[in-house]
Design brief:
This protein is α/β, with parallel strands linked by helices. It is 26% helix and 25% strand.
Length: 262
């Protein structure tokens, strides 16, 4: 995949802590019943220069934790720090890619990608340049004026990725970004994303990926945090000792990891 890079800051990927969760718990009140505990005493540190995976069963609280780290949801207890400062709202420098494509059907590809820039007050030639670069980077050149309904699922998710990357976030959060795609489309998009990361073309310092796919986590991530369920806790943390790009044959070397799933 040959694409131009966005303006990657010179300070990108230095060894520093981007986000940290300390003793984070989340519960929801249920009428006439005991509160539902979704997350229990979660500690997490994410450093610049790494891709981390949150691996666990559906319903284990991974997506809830992702929203807490983004500052979109306040935890019931515990603290979240963004660049060593307490987080008390949406973090500046975080972008998210959702499982659903979440595109506005009445907007073209270019208009969907530009949404974040317009919210930040970036307009005119600067807006056009950043949008064009993001669209080319993610492999959507020539589709700027297409409507979402005219695109395949894989291309719609590429629009979602371009929309997140165009604001040049420090941290990219991805909530099962490939799970709604067919196997081959997901594999192509996953491969392209890792290739761009390896070539330092992505304007991000780190990525946090929610998944319930063990193979996907091993192929993408540098560290994998395995979630237990009911309530969600980090049961194990595993380092992946393989450089990118990774051959699928390495999965044989880590097949025993599946037995670590709580």
């Amino acid at each position: 995949m040959t694409s131009p890079s966005l303006d990657v800051p010179s300070t990108a990927r230095h060894a520093s802590v981007l986000v940290e969760a300390r003793h984070v718990s989340q519960s929801y009140h249920k009428d006439s019943a005991v509160d539902l505990l979704v997350l229990d005493d979660v500690d997490l540190t994410l450093n610049a220069g790494e891709i981390v995976g949150l691996l666990g069963r559906s319903g284990s609280g991974k997506s809830t934790l992702l929203r807490i780290l983004a500052g979109l949801l306040a935890p019931s207890s515990g603290e979240v720090f963004w660049k060593n400062e307490p987080l008390a709202g949406p973090a500046d420098g975080v972008a998210m890619v959702f499982q659903s494509f979440a595109l506005f059907p009445w907007m073209t590809v270019e208009e969907n990608v530009a949404l974040g820039l317009e919210a930040k007050g970036i307009t005119g030639e600067e807006r056009d340049r950043l949008v064009e670069n993001a669209i080319e980077l993610i492999g959507l050149g020539g589709y700027e004026n297409a409507w979402p309904k005219e695109l395949s699922g894989g291309m719609q998710q590429r629009v979602g990725l371009a929309r997140a990357l165009v604001v040049q976030p420090d941290l990219l959060l991805m909530d099962e970004p490939f799970s709604a795609l067919d196997v081959l489309t997901a594999e192509n998009l996953r491969t392209d994303l890792v290739e761009l990361w390896s070539e330092k073309k992505l304007p991000v310092q780190a990525m946090l990926v929610v998944t319930h796919n063990i193979e996907e986590a091993v192929l993408i991530c540098d560290r994998i945090m395995i979630f237990s369920s009911n309530p969600g806790r980090i049961a194990h943390v595993l380092a992946v000792p393989f450089a990118h790009p990774r051959d699928r044959k390495i999965l044989r070397s880590v097949s025993l990891w599946t037995t670590s799933m709580p």
